Amino acid sequence: MSERRRFSSEEKVMILREHLDNNVKVSDLAAKYKVHPNMILRWKKELFEGALDIFSQKHKKNGQNAKEQKLEEKIKKMQEVITEITTDNLELRKKYNGEI
Questions:
Q1: CA–CA separation, 98 vs 100, rounded Å?
Q2: CA distance 57 to 49
Q3: The dihedral of CA 82, 87, 90, 96: what is its sign?
Q4: I need a labelling partner for 32 at 20 to 30 A (CA). Which of 5, 50, 74, 92 fits?
Q5: What would the pLDDT profile of 40-80 be if each residue is shown by its tens digit?
Q6: CA–CA separation, 5 and 58 (whole Å)
């Protein structure tokens, strides 16, 4: 039995680019690079599934940045209110109970 060939990521991308950009048939590429056509089709499927993840993560990341900014603003406002309430509380204690 022959040993299984391993293709690097760069080689896979090169083969897929040749297929997608130059419209070379999968069967022709399979013969040229001595790989089963199903393997090239699997790489193509993985490429597009990965692309979907990349684009959805980019969208989520932008959405998270806006969401994070809103939450940070909310936290600042809450901290300001807490500071104001604490200050008012201390002043009232001093007024009614004398020095603390």
A1: 6
A2: 12
A3: negative
A4: 50
A5: 999 999 999 888 878 777 666 666 677 888 899 999 999 99
A6: 34
Token pair of 46 as six digits: 């993985």
d(CA 26, CA 37): 6
Q: Which amino acid is at 65?
A: N
SS3 letters for the chain?
A: CCCCCCCCHHHHHHHHHHHHHHCCCHHHHHHHHCCCHHHHHHHHHHHHHHHHHHHHHHHHHHHHHHHHHHHHHHHHHHHHHHHHHHHHHHHHHHHHHCCC
| Residue 34: both structure tokens together | 């001595």
pTM higher than the cut 0.85: no
Q: State the Cα–Cα distance between residues 19 and 30, nearest whole angstrom.
A: 10
